[in-house]
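Lecture notes, unit on binding sites. The following record was shown on slide 14. It pairs a sequence with beta-D-ribofuranose.
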Amino acid sequence: PIPLIIDTDPGVDDAVALMLAAASPEVDLRAVTTVFGNVPLPMTTRNAGRVLALAGRAAVPVAAGAARPLVHDRALRAEEWHGGDGLGGRASALPDPIAAPDPRGAIVVMAAVLRESAEPVTIAPIGPLTNVALLLAVHPELAPRIGRIVWMGGSLGAGNVTGAAEFNAHCDPEAAHRVLTQADVPVTVVPLDLTLRCPADPQWVAALGAGGPRGHELAQVLAHYRAAYLTHYGRDAVALHDAVAVLEAIRPGVLRTEAMPVQVACDLGPARGATVPVPGGGPDVAVALDADVDAVLADVLERVGRLG
Ligand code: BDR
Ligand code: CA
């Protein structure tokens, strides 16, 4: 199996992504590191532990990383979508983590996993890129041990925070720029343009909920997110953003990518956080532009269903 670190800010779609990884024998989930994002860091950390406990994977180490972005502090959160507790009001219904977070923190834990792994490790960040930017800055010597970085974030079209910027990019544009423009590690970007094309409809959620107690609980976690989508977009179909990226980490090549250099707008104006292809503007990243979206949704459902 591919050694995998998921860096996350749970987050409802993060929870689906964690369950997906836990259910997939193609990957060996070595650590889950957490970052501020949808809700503040203490909550994303606690939520990561709870989701792993729900998945029956409480032994996977959790370590907390950045509580704030690299340069410009900001108050942006996504509670409207993910609920005040980050898990649609269901966080306290989930089992408590068995162990406390690893006191060494995210950067040290990621570095240790990289050093100890005989195989190249995939890192799947599904939140702001702050921790990954710090890892690359503190431990450039470990870059060759990272097989690939598969990030859910950015958008080539419209954003979901501003007209230009997607949430994870907008939370820490400087970190995103650092990660997307380094040449040491192959990066795959799974942008909003594609993840919005993978909406889970009521039948999908019903099938998830009917699959067993874990699926049932995850479907409950999704309820608030569904209501927010219905209010905003007028339809009951939720984007499983982070799960799409984690599926690509599990099954390399499941998404169709195009190579292009991408820069991130870091000025404080209206374009802040925009992810912009700039021909000749740095190393190529693989941007996921297309997939058999029905097959992606069916695969996520089938896998998470294995957890019962
Ligand atoms: C991204 O923003 C977060 O709210 C989601 O968890 C996902 O990672 C989508 O723009
Ligand atoms: Ca996320």
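Take-home: The first helix runs from residue 12 to 22.
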